[in-house]
Amino acid sequence: MAGEPQADCLFCKIVAGNIPATVVRETETTFAFRDINPQAPTHVLVIPRVHYSDASSLAAAEPAVAADLLRVAGEIAAEEKIDGHGYRIVFNTGAGAGQTVFHAHAHVLGGRGLQWPPG
User: Fold this and answer.
1) Residue ranges of the alpha helices (H) in 23-119?
2) 51 tagged catalytic
3) Which of 43, 51, 103, 105 is catalytic?
4) How does pLDDT run across 13-30, given as a tens digit for each residue?
5) How far apart are CA 112 and CA 97, in angstroms?
6) pTM score, two decimals?
7) Left, alpha or beta for 111 (phi > 0: left; psi -120 to 50: alpha)?
C-alpha cells in the first residue's frame, strides 16, 4: 500500500536502519544521507519516510511531506555551503529518466559547475 514501508525497497530499509547509510539529517518526515555513488562533491539524497514510488505520487498524496522534503533539501544545501554558488535539486521519475530506486527521492547536488542541459 502506498505510504507504507515496502519490504523490497532499498530506501525503506535504510530508513528502518536495516542498511547502513551516512546520515546527514533526520526529521519527522524526511531522511537524508550521502549518495554511495556521488556525481558531485556534494551529493545528498533526501527521501520521505513514507513510501511513494516517485515525487509526483508523493506530492499528490502527501503535499506537506513533499514540501518538507524540498525545505530540507534547501537547508542541507546551506549546511553544505553550496547555496551561495548554486546547487541542483533533481527528481528522476521513471526508469527512462534514470530512476533506479522507486521510492521518491531528491538528489541535492553541488560543489562543482553543473552544466545545462544535464545528463
Assistant:
1) 55-61, 63-79
2) no
3) 105
4) 999 999 999 999 999 999
5) 22
6) 0.95
7) left
